[in-house]
Design a protein that fits this description.
34% helix, five-stranded mixed beta sheet, 6 helices, alpha/beta, 206 residues, globular, Nucleotidyltransferase, domain 5
């Protein structure tokens, strides 16, 4: 396991921010924001994609117990269809940051793009979930909360095998889509790239 950095900027309240479900064909996109103590240590903490489901679930309990503050937000598929997946991801990230009980001074964003959050600086890190503990923690919370949601809706529509494909575009998922048609959780405009629109991220009405 790699040793992740505890912080980016010393003596600063940092929140790691990451998303899950951006590439899915169904359901909400999830985002999490996590502020960890500067002395937080866990040798298993890493990018959620590199961990087993069992290990992610175990780390979720640790993170939610030991974090200074954490928050998970989701933006539903109807809004994704309305504003596109990129803007919906920003909305989810902003909502997660807004719901933190401790206000961060710096946001560490996984990826290479972000819509600036008012009055809080941010730094983007490509593959940041494999570099910084707070981003890794956010990736785990976003992933586990989304997986929990997907398991729940799987029982509504078991024919799509969402418990296995997690809503992503596997050959089997696409085959079931062709056979049964779209569910109510389908992202109808996912394959399209609608024109970007301007959004007031602080006053958006869900």
């Amino acid at each position: 396991m790699p040793i992740l950095s505890s912080f980016y900027k010393p003596n600063t309240i940092e929140a790691g921010v990451d998303e899950a479900g951006r590439g899915s064909l169904i359901g909400p996109v999830f985002a999490a924001a996590v502020i960890l103590p500067t002395d937080f240590k866990n040798k298993f903490l890493n990018d959620s994609k590199k961990l087993s489901e069992k290990k992610r679930d175990e780390l979720r309990i640790v993170i939610e117990k030991e974090a200074i503050a954490w928050s998970v937000a989701k933006i539903n598929e109807d809004i994704i269809d309305k504003v596109n997946i990129l803007n919906a991801t920003y909305l989810a990230m902003h909502e997660a940051v807004r719901n933190l009980t401790t206000k961060p001074e710096l946001l560490l964003i996984d990826g290479n793009r972000f819509k600036p959050y008012p009055k809080i600086q941010h730094v983007c890190h490509v593959k940041g979930d494999g570099k910084f503990m707070s981003i890794a923690a956010a990736s785990i919370l976003a992933k586990t909360h989304r997986d929990e949601f997907i398991k729940k809706i799987h029982f509504e529509f078991p024919q799509y095998n969402w418990d296995q494909n997690k809503g992503y575009g596997t050959a089997n998922h696409k085959e079931m889509y062709e056979k049964f048609g779209p569910s109510v959780y389908q992202r109808k405009t996912f394959k399209y790239k609608p024109k970007q629109i301007e959004i007031d991220f602080m006053n958006f009405e869900f």
